[in-house]
Amino acid sequence: MKLWNRIVTVFSLMLLLVSVTFSQPAQALDFNTILQGNSPILAVENDRRNAADELLRTEFGQKIDINNSDIRDFRDLRGFYPKLASIIIQNAPYEQVEDILLIPGLSDSQKERLQANIDNFTATPVEEVFNEGDERYNAGVY
Q1: What range does the domain containing 101 cover?
Q2: What is the pTM of this model?
Q3: Distance of CA 110 to the CA centre of its chain
Q4: Residue 45 lies in a domain
């Protein structure tokens, strides 16, 4: 056992000696050294936009779109989330904003809430990017 301890100790000391002897100090690079090898980057204007970004440039970005907004967008309106918002989504699409007042089965109080908030809504054409696969109920935003 003593022999084994001596062998391990000698081997460890030799390894330490070799690593200290042949180690090289770290060399820090300054900012100019880093930039010498890089070429300048040219900014290019990109005209391509996806359908969602294009729609956000319209009235959709400022108001709740009754044809494309998901159910979470109705949370800021008192009395809409989740019941009345679900009714609006289930009966979409709408040609104009006033069509939401014609939804069958609405109570008088729901019609009053809709009428009071009619200025907060817009009706744009249905976009597949917002309506695929029931994403209007669960947009995956957590």
Answers
A1: 52-134
A2: 0.59
A3: 32
A4: no
Count how many Cα atoms sit within 13 Å of the Cα of residue 95 in the half-sphere of its side chain: 2
Q: Is residue 20 part of a domain?
A: no
**Is residue 78 domain-resident?**
yes
Q: Is 48 left (phi over 0), alpha (psi -120 to 50) or beta?
A: beta
- What is the number of structural domains in the chain? 1
The backbone region for 134, taken as left when phi is positive above 0, alpha when psi lies in -120 to 50, beta otherwise, is left
In 30-137, the DSSP E strands lie at 64-65, 121-122
Between residues 55 and 103, which one has the greater pLDDT?
103
| Contact (CB, 8 A) for 94 and 68 | no
Closest CA to 74 of 126, 82, 139, 112: 82
